[in-house]
UniProtKB/TrEMBL annotation:
Domain Diphosphomevalonate decarboxylase-like N-terminal stretches: 17-190
Gene giving rise to this polypeptide: LOC109009861
Chief subcellular location: other
Keyword Lyase recorded: yes
Name of the protein in its database record: Diphosphomevalonate decarboxylase
UniProt cross-references to Gene3D superfamilies, sorted A to Z: 3.30.230.10, GHMP kinase, C-terminal domain
Entry-linked PANTHER family: DIPHOSPHOMEVALONATE DECARBOXYLASE
High-level lineage: Eukaryota, Viridiplantae, Streptophyta, Embryophyta, Tracheophyta
Protein species of origin: Juglans regia (English walnut)
NCBIfam families: mevDPdecarb
SUPFAM superfamilies to which the protein is assigned, alphabetical: GHMP Kinase, C-terminal domain, Ribosomal protein S5 domain 2-like
Superkingdom assignment: Eukaryota
UniProt-recorded Gene Ontology molecular function terms: ATP binding; diphosphomevalonate decarboxylase activity
GO biological process: isopentenyl diphosphate biosynthetic process, mevalonate pathway; sterol biosynthetic process
Amino acid sequence: MVGGAEKWVMMVTAQTPTNIAVIKYWGKRDESLILPVNDSISVTLDPDHLCTTTTVAVSPSFDRDRMWLNGKEISLSGGRYQNCLREIRSRASDVEDEENGIKIPKKDWEKLHLHIASYNNFPTAAGLASSAAGFACLVFSLAKLMNVKEDQSKLSAIARQGSGSACRSLYGGFVKWIKGRDEDGRDSLAVQLADEKHWDDLLIIIAVVSSRQKETSSTTGMCETVETSLLLKHRAKEIVPKRILQMEEAIKNRDFTSFAQLACADSNQFHAVCLDTSPPIFYMNDTSHRIISIAEKWNRSEGTPQVAYTFDAGPNAVLIARDRKAATLLLQRLLFYFPPSSATDLDSYVLGDKSILKDAGIEGIIDVEGLPPPPEIKDSIPTQKYKGDVSYFICTRPGRGPVLLSDKSQALLNPQDGLPK
Ligand code: DP6
């Protein structure tokens, strides 16, 4: 290793998006390699609103691997971190930083230690796939630091070993995780179906639903489902393979009607499989069910779907609107049924892309109580409202894949000592 007085710190910062599955991954055939029982398809979410930023640093002065998540040091001893670190180190190449006179030969990566700092631009506790963006960003940034020459798909197979859904965050747009056949998992990886520009009419509104309940983790939940649910076997063998082909076709043709029908049916079936688990797992709550009813009622009254809904392992709703007009009408409906609790103003209740608020003509209005009821409600039925049942909304859209951040000021670690800023 060459470099003055062994004091140098070399680092890389990257940003990686989260993703939402529209054909769900649920159930593993191999727990430690994280190999799924079926293919899945996701939409990558715009990193401007939901992403992880990670800085990885290497220095001969570091005495062990360390990681900080949202400013707090966390342990790297877990098998998932260890698997990702081992796999990525074994693929490292020679690295040369001519400007600073630093040379790291390939063989030195096994002995050099790393510092990793990661930050989510959304609350980790909100249950919005933070592990997917987190592991994808860890693997992507380390691959850049260590000059790993493998393509994005091969990197996705490493991120998969951190968290299954993470492999789909290595690409923007629409992504398929192919379950693969090999026992060692090398062919269980993500491929991009279409980039984010392919279908840029779509807009996404996430309802972060208030919940006091501690949910079963995806990892534990899917393990119990594999052990006890006969419905999962039927789903993985008979239903998903056909749905994957139909969903690929719907995405290719920008066929929103099919896209929405498939996404809603698959979300509902995933939750049915959870209910078919012993003991049953409940991820959706009354608010989630209400949001489904609102979407279904509206779609039916319009004759063609305006919105697709999908729910992961928690009560939050991810609503995908056909276009801007539909997103506007959707937001009006959501604010009608779920007004903010009185202490909150709209600006902190609707986050992300606020232009949808503007289009809906409700920007700056503090009191949304006066919104008229949507026309699909029959006049005779008194409408109930559910103030406070949604914590906040995030307006976003399909987005790009991982990027390197070259602006040094965005690094999360100090360039002098490699410790968090
Ligand atoms: C419901 O990827 O979080 O979000 O592989 O055990 O880390 P592990 O699970 P994880 O599971 C995600 C499940 C899901 C559906 C999906 O994203 O496809």
